[in-house]
């Protein structure tokens, strides 16, 4: 696990990478799944982003993909839809030896593997409340999860993605695999834990 490596995603149009922050997206079985590709599509069929979570290092064409890394491809021309559209998230697993052609995208970035969830409590509230667009849905395990997308001031690129999960108070925060329909929440919404549950968040910088 590399916590302080400087690495730039193939085709990254942004500045040199900062130190990677933790990711908490489930890439599937690390033995049988080379990479898992998530696709995020608005209900109007415009694509928001694709996210490749890589379990096993591989090369495809001129591109190298490193294990324990997630690669984001954001369609920045569709970011305005965050203001009004619900979101559908699906994923496909690819076996070892599969090829992968990175999609053309206005913004690309990568994040190295980590393990970091912070609990939301009465005294330590959601730090991103009232920011960006918040979506509520479920993981493949059936737990309630949220995704918050925050754009930069000009609205032409993502600034951060924050993942949330709700668990029984006896549960332990772990990797999540978003799947299905995600409903846009009120613009001033913050994530809190209902009675009998605990809430956790993990924030990823996209710049």
What is the number of domains? 1
Radius of gyration: 16 Å
- Major sheet: arrangement of strands: 7-5-2-1-6-12-9-10-11-13-8
Shape: globular
Biased composition (Polar residues): 187-200
Region (Disordered): 1-26, 187-207
Give the arrangement of secondary structure elements:
Blueprint lengths: L34 E8 L4 E8 L3 E3 L2 E3 L3 E6 L12 E8 L12 E6 L5 E3 L12 E6 L5 E8 L6 E11 L11 E5 L12 E9 L2
Antiparallel strand pairs: 1-2, 1-6, 2-5, 3-4, 5-7, 6-12, 8-13, 9-10, 9-12, 10-11, 11-13
Could you explain how this protein is built, in words?
- With 207 residues, this protein is an all-beta fold.
- The chain has one domain (35-205).
- Helix content is 0%, strand content 41%.
- Strands 7-5-2-1-6-12-9-10-11-13-8 form an eleven-stranded antiparallel sheet, with no helix packed on it. It has a two-stranded antiparallel ribbon with strand order 3-4.
- It is globular, with a radius of gyration of 16 Å.
- The model is unreliable at 1-22 (pLDDT under 50).
Q: What distinguishing features does this structure have?
A:
207 residues, 0% helix
Can you summarize this structure?
The protein has 207 residues and is mostly beta strands. The protein has no helices and 13 strands.
